[in-house]
Amino acid sequence: MCKYYRLIFFILLFLSTSAHAVMEVSLEYGYDRQIFGDSRQNTMISKSYNVSWAFYFITYTAIELSASHSEETITLNDESYFPDYDISVIQTLSVVQTNVFGIGIRQSLAGSKATIRPLISIGYAKQLEEYDRDITYRDEGSGATAAITDDTVKQSADSTFASFTIQIKLTRGLSINGSVKTVFPAFEFNKARDNVKYLVGFSLMF
C-alpha cells in the first residue's frame, strides 16, 4: 500500500512539474472531548490528523492523495461487582487507532484567487484499524488491583472517503481551512453520517 502511494506521488509530481500545474498541500487537525455518566466519571477523547496533496490537472479539478490518523480513547470508570469471583471492575480503557489512505478527485467550486473557496472531495480509501482494551479490577478480599490487557484486534476495509472544505485566503498561496470529513464502507452512502470528523488547518498552494 505505501509503495503504491509513493509511486503515484512521484508520477504526479513529475507530471505537475513538467506541466507547470498548480499543486496544493493541506494539513488539518481535529480534537473532541466528551464527558458522560451520572457522575461525569467517563470520558471520550478523539484526536485526528490529516494531510492531503492535490495536483490540479485542470483549473478547478485535482487528483487528491490523502493520509489520516485518528485515535479515540474511551475511559469508563463505572464499577461493576462480580460476587462469584469477589472482584470489581473499576475501569475499562479502550483505544481505537485508525489510519486511512485515500486517492480521489477534489473539485473546487471557485477559482484559486477567490477569498472564500469551497472544495468537495470524494474517492477510494483503505481503512486500517487497531483496537486495544485494558480492564482494571479490584480483589474485594485483599483490596489489590490488577489490569488485564486484551489482544490487539486489527482489521482493514475498502472504503469511500468524502469531504467538504471551506478555505479562507490569507495570502497569495496560504489559506486557512475548515473541513467536514467522513469515511464509510464502499458505496454504502447511507452510512456516511456515522463517522463524521471536523478539522481545521491550513493549505499551501504553489
Commentary on this structure:
By secondary structure, this protein is mostly beta strands. Helix content is 9%, strand content 67%. The chain has one helix and ten strands, in the order H-E-E-E-E-E-E-E-E-E-E. It has one helix spanning 2-19; strands spanning 22-36, 42-56, 61-76, 80-82, 87-108, 116-139, 145-149, 153-169, 174-185, 196-205. Strands 1-2-3-5-6-8-9-10 form an eight-stranded antiparallel barrel. Strand 8 (153-169) and strand 9 form a beta hairpin. The protein starts with a helix and ends with a strand. The model has no long low-confidence stretch (mean pLDDT 90).
Layout of strands and helices, then pairs:
Elements: H1 2-19, E1 22-36, E2 42-56, E3 61-76, E4 80-82, E5 87-108, E6 116-139, E7 145-149, E8 153-169, E9 174-185, E10 196-205
Antiparallel strand pairs: 1-2, 1-10, 2-3, 3-5, 4-5, 5-6, 6-7, 6-8, 8-9, 9-10
Helicity, as a percent range: under 10%
- Sheet/helix structural class: mainly beta
- Name the strands of the widest sheet in spatial order: 1-2-3-5-6-8-9-10
- Characterize the overall form: elongated
Low-confidence stretches: none
Order of helices and strands: HEEEEEEEEEE
What is the residue-averaged pLDDT?
90
* Proportion of beta-strand residues: over 45%
Brief sketch in words of this structure:
The protein is mainly β and 206 residues long. The chain has 1 helix and 10 strands.
